[in-house]
Amino acid sequence: MNALDHPTGAPAPAPTSAVATPADGSVAQWTDRYSHAVMDTFGPPQRVLVRGEGAYVWDADGKRYLDLLAGIAVNALGHAHPTLTAAVSAQLGTLGHVSNFFGTPTQIALAERLLALAEAPEGSRVFFTNSGTEANEAAFKMTRRTGRTRVLALQGGFHGRTMGALALTSKAAYREPFEPLPGGVEFVAFDDVAALEEAFSPAAVAVRGEVAALVVEPVQGEAGVRSLSPGYLVAARELTARHGALLVLDEVQTGVGRTGSWFAYQQPEVGGGIVPDVVTLAKGLGGGFPVGAVVAYGERAATLLGRGQHGTTFGGNPVAAAAALATLGVIERDGLLENARTVGALLRDGIAGAGNPLVDGVRGRGLLLAVQLARPVAADVARAALDAGFVVNAVAPDAIRLAPPLILTPDQARDVVAFFATVTVPEEPAASAPARAASGTADPAPTTVPTTRSS
User: Which of 13, 110, 394, 445 is the most buried (most CB within 10 A)?
Assistant: First the structure.
């Protein structure tokens, strides 16, 4: 089946809607209603958005923004992409949902497509979920099926908000309110091969037991877009293979073209040619429609979860699978992997070379980038960007994350470069910082910045 075509060829139904439109209220009015209806887990919305097209979104007051966050690396094709909307509409008008007692053509075709893109060996299989945290929950359960309970994760890693995925997440502010979490997880220093070797050493094994799995992100998005050094994953693969442990790569944020390849580990300077045991995916996979996946490489990993040992109601449903097939098809058809590399380089080199003393540098791969600031004023820069018509993310007190749609054009990237070339934040007198803190207007502390992925 062509990923871009619905199997029935059915046209999308004519739109009918009773949903709110910009005329139904202003940003201020919608924000007030939000505060009385939605749980306060995210704080007040920065804006209330009502429409999107391509790489742009509009708020309820009619102001347009260039979306450089894409729903936190989700909207790979931007907003309202015609191929994606047609695929979802046609599938929903044909077969919207069935239980997993039944298979569907889109589910099966998507699994086959992912295995092909992953270049997975014979015997590999896919399990579908609705989100990244669910994918990582499934991977965590797979580690338990090895017969071992000791799992290694990296400091700075973020793997989700549900209890198992949260156990793999190192940030104390996220973990502590919900402890005790599932046990057996140890955190190893980021990008430190010697620390990893120590965790697998005979002395460590004698005290703490054999390692079931190592769970890592090739690029830590929530920690400020930090990439592992060349050779780290090669060393990790050698250690896990030697000790019979699983190597689990969390590519929820980096996968599906975000870094300029289908999966970040496939880049030679990142993965060095390794084959992992498990890769988890979500975010950009559905182009904005909720879908996640666990790709298990080879018979051993693919058979760890047996019948009845895991499940999902909505995972791999026909509509989600159709959305994912359409997204993957457009990425391939329109050369968006190359676009991510070239436009990402334009952003990276342009912002770094613009000469703004507030900018210390730019890091990342493809269209997952962080602008390193010379001072911890990321919240101020993000507010200035929003006022100027750009959606960015203060991922750390001194870093701005950019994760725009993969369709971002060179001209749009040049607009972003122009903003970072001129943005300024006044130097704050030292005496004023306590006053700001007392008044509740201080920038969030590093442990409380609400910038994590919402999986």
Answer: 110
- The half-sphere exposure of 406 on its side-chain side, counting CA atoms within 13 A, is 36
Residue 54's φ and ψ, nearest 5 degrees, are 60, -130
User: Which run of H or E residues covers position 10?
Assistant: none
Cα-flanking dihedrals φ and ψ of residue 145, to 5°? -75, -5
In order of 163, 169, 170, 392, 445, the CA distances from 176 in angstroms are 12, 11, 10, 28, 16
Rounding to the nearest 10 degrees, give the CA dihedral for residues 258, 263, 266, 267: 10
Question: Mind listing the pLDDT tens digit for each residue in 303-319?
Answer: 999 999 999 999 999 99
Per DSSP bridges, beta strands 211-216 and 150-154 are parallel
Q: Could you tell me what percent of the chain has a pLDDT over 70?
A: 89
pLDDT at residue 428 in the model: 72
Three-state DSSP state, 70: helix
Q: 3-state class of 397 per DSSP?
A: coil
* Segments in the chain below pLDDT 70: 1-23, 429-455
Could you tell me the maximum CA-CA distance found in the chain, to the nearest angstrom? 68
What are the Cα distances from residue 318, in Å, to 95, 103, 106, 322?
A: 7, 9, 6, 6
Q: Name the CA radius of gyration of the chain, rounded.
A: 22
* CA separation for the pair 357, 361 (Å, rounded): 10
DSSP lists the bridge partners of residue 53 as 56
Letter for the amino acid at 109? Answer: A
